[in-house]
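Researcher: Quick sanity check before group meeting.
Model: Go ahead. Protein one:
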Amino acid sequence: MKWLAKRLQRDVFVPAFIVVVIGVSLTMWAVHQQRTGQQQRAAQRFAQEVLLGTDTVRKRINLYTEIAAGLRDLFLVNSNLDRETFERIAARHNARARYPEIRNVRFVRRVSTADKPDTDSRYIVDYLWPEVGNEALRGLDISIQAPNLEALHISRDTGAPSITAPIQLLQDDDKPIGFVLHMPIYDESVDVSQVGYVNDQDADGFIGTVGLAIDADHMLEAVANTGALQHVAVSMVDAGPLDTGHHDVALANQLNANPLADEAGLLGTYTRQRPLLSNAGLAPDTQAIQAHARRWELTFTPGQSLLSLLERNLSRWIAVAGFILTFLLATLTAIVLRQRARVISQAKQQIDYLTYYD
């Protein structure tokens, strides 16, 4: 009888143990499949966010360029445009109301130093809007900021719009980091398609530039307000100039003596939420874009909300449900087999009893 009891006990617990092994294995497989799918969904959504953010920043630069081109057209119609007319038209369009990152629009006039032939012209902020908050800029010689002068020279020498390296916007007390977009203006004697100046003395017909001063952090906020950057953090870095064929040795030396406002070329950052150091195994993604004659790099870091709360916790719920179901099935198996063993044992006892008395 003892051997029968041991066998029946083994017949109860071995199947229950097999149910536990199979249940745990299936649960772990389901959790692994869920986490793999979760990583794939997060990676796909992150890639979409990066694409949307990069495209929106690029479109924002094009928008600023169109605004500057519109200001430039005022001078093409009337090269003797006066300050009052410029500021009245700028106020009527009120670009700052629609684009608050634009700190001001300005006309920088070339002031020739004809009495000093070997001296470069000066470039003075002549027209300015809005006046309020920008009083310190009127009459400013932009050469005090080497990146500003460099961008103007590139515009002057190529006939194309240009953007400065990161600079401090002097009109604000906290002097945020931003950039200035320059759009060149020439008089009627200049064929813009043939522009190829190499120095200031060769720049006859160049009047100056119109442009915009942009706060980079507020620019990224404006990008986010369009629907981009909802689930990612971004840092925007100026990676340096593109090869435009413009080489100004004296100005390059001045730039080396007066480095950018931020040694890393950081323009701005934006985050709607705290980024995660690890989000479904996703690493930051860096995208390069052309900002006229400069190269910008946008580094995107994934945020937690790339996945919903349900999606983030689903693998845990699968694990809990799987373990509970495994426990229940193993318990049920043990109970059923124990009942079966009991019935077999009782039947065996009855058979032995009948056999004994026969």
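Researcher: Fine. The other one?
Model: Protein two, sequence then structure:
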Amino acid sequence: MTSQELASPLSDEAIASILERDCGIYVSRRLMDWLPHGADSASGPAHLPRRALINTFGAGGSCVSMVVEEYASPEPDRDEEARLKGREEAILLSAHTAEQLRAITEQFLGYARRNHDTPLGDLADILQLRRTHMRYRWAAIVRTIDELIEKLRDALEQEVLDHGVGYSSQDSFDTASRLKRIISGNLARKVSENLMENRDLAGLAGLWQMGIDVPWAQVSGERRVARLSLPSYPFARKSLSFA
């Protein structure tokens, strides 16, 4: 579905068996383009999203079916893009361990280099609101993808990811725990409100790196965020044996 192509997973005998039934099903005999169907709408002809039915059958008679549909990116709001162009954004990365934080930083460096036209605001919103924030943290305030690439590269080259990033060390974790106890209740709300009012992303990112909850949803507002296919979490590769 991602490549918008249809493969032919069936043998010639299976295809012939299906075609003999004259059941109205078209079977792909080779790799071919997956063209969308058209439909009439109030604004004129429109393409329907590609959909696929996936079936699995168990030996005991169980059956599971799932329908998947491709994601169609909404038309970009040019006025909104022009207004937000060059605005500072907070890019947040986190992981369970320092090694995994380094791995995910390398993944995002490669992603940024391959996808130079990625909307920076959408990337920031996804990392702020749709990712789980874990103990080892890295943040950068940037205005462009080029600036993000530079900061990701510097973080890897300077090995800052291995030395007390956020509250990754036990000392900084204890300090963050004490700070969280101090900055709580009304004080925490006042600090956040002050930083939000001035859109002090550096201050907010600093609090976040120390393990303090930051209401990132208030930073992004109600702007519609496009979906992006971002690198997934670099899980540890372990081999387990069963006695």
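Researcher: One line on it for the slide.
Model: The chain has nine helices and eight strands.
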